[in-house]
Task: structure prediction
Amino acid sequence: MLEFDDIQHILLMRVPALTGRYEFLSFRSATGGRTWLSAIREKVQSAAEVRASLEQEKRWVTVAFTWNGLRALGVDEASLATFPEEFRQGMVARAEMLGDTGANHPDNWVGGLTSPRLHAIVILFAGDEAERERCVTEHNKFIAQCRDVEVLSSLDLAAIPPFIYAHDHFGYRDRLSQPVIEGSGEVATPGSGAPLKPGEFILGYPDEAGPPAHLPQPEVLSRNGSYMAYRQLQEHVGRFREFLRQNAHTPEEQELLAAKLMGRWRSGAPLVLSPDKDDPTLAADPQRNNDFNYKEMDPQGYAVPLGSHARRMNPRDTAANMNRRRMIRRGATYGPQLPEEAPEDGLERGIAAFVICASLIRQFEFAQNVWANDRNFHELGNERDPVIGNQDGTLEFKIPKRPIRKKITGLPAFTTVRGGAYFFLPGIKALRYLASLGDVR
Amino acid sequence: MSDASKQTSGTKPAAMAIPKGGFFKDKIEQGRYGPIFPKTPACYGFSILAKVIPGREERFYEYARNIEQAVAAQPDCLAVLKLHYLRWVLFPIKGDTYFMYQGIFDTDFDKYTEDAVNLFAATGLSTAFENLEGFPADWRTNAPAFVKFVREHQCPSFLEYGEYPYVSAEEIKKALRLKAAFSDMLDQMQ
Result:
């Protein structure tokens, strides 16, 4: 049985937010950090609380810490040493392996995220602009009273109209394929696979390999916790649209090319089920929009190119041990929408998202290192993920087609990594434990 | 396919001298579990040498029969390792028995480590490693410990050669399938 009242809601639920804000914090002293945490933890909702109040609630708060942040709060060295190495090192130290080189290199990141002084993130999701403003003002007021807590940076989120379904700045519908956790009460849509053992995402439960093992200590700190890999990805919308225009003649062909890069039409309709033309009705039908595989239905990639984003990030039945590689994605878009037909305006816009998993090295880092950035994934020779892979203009993208495939060379980078970090997402009791670390016990 | 392989198209033999320690210092690629040994004309590979726990030699012969049966029953059971060849050797040094596990494959081991660990558990490959001194008892749930053992017992090559350098097993199989298809086509045209 999952302990819904001890698990932060972000792990199990997607809230109906249209806006929000991330704040990145640094603690100048342990007592300062703990004072802040003691107060903010009252605002952090468990999955049980959000479930009970989803209709009334207009704001949702999540708190997580870097390894340096746990140390800054006063977690002792013996306990800190029990966290996995990749988390202790942090995302910056793992940059080369993650493909964060060239334009994506941490030297170019913003918001102070590369600093060892990055200690915590507060994630605010809000139902509307007014509520966001109210929460931000309240938090700012509180921070001003807290000695020794500094806001390194913040990022305002904004969904992109039309709000009928979630989509990114390129126009791709999002949130179609998510793993379902056993015991969460969620029902998997057809094609989404059987529910996975909770330990794949939540610490302290059995995972797909067996009982929990090698958890950070003490147990009160790790139980019902998880890890979050944060990525701020700038989306170069002008460049993306220009690429479509240059490589496809008619609007229909451009739409197909966009679909080939992703593996789904921008509406969300899967190319496997609708290879030649878009099908918005299929896209909107959860009973059908994820119900496909690759091995039997599209082995050569005639519908979904082998190197497309969706086929890399979830190879379904064409990869070994898929159950040990799944991830929960949460997040939002930021920056203003670039109107259709408008030229690139130079403003920054993109996705600021979290990958939530029980093992950063086995789940997130594997996906990033192998699926996104292995140039020889599926024997493709000279490709990386066309959407999130490290593209330097020297790689290609091959679209299988009868009688002869189409090969696009010199693929431009449609996204640039602007920041990232590894966070530990404690359970509710663990937040209380962290807040009380300095107390005499 | 790497840039180097494009230069040779896989038909021009090539050799590569490798510095002491197994890495070219100016171009060490980082993997999830540490630096990756370079790809050579003989693809990726490892040569793991470890001492057998005294009295356990017979287990290795038993294990060989298991692997033979596992592959016969399910020919693609080792597919995830992207192998060309594996060689298992037992040899004596000063009265002790040592085991060498040498593999040539197309992906750096780090990439699919956890898949490999899972596979070892499923196919019974584990029974061989568990008879080696220093092998972690909790390897099933502790991929990092497994990787550490492999890295600590890896003896890197100082020279590798390929008659058809950098060519992947998949490309070779594709070429063989193509040859078969062509033969079949020619037969049909008689």
Q: What stands out?
A: The domain at 3-188 of chain B is CATH 3.30.70.1090 (Alpha-Beta Plaits). Chain B touches chain A through 25 residues (CB under 8 Å). Chain B is about 35% helix and 25% strand. The radius of gyration of chain B is 19 Å.
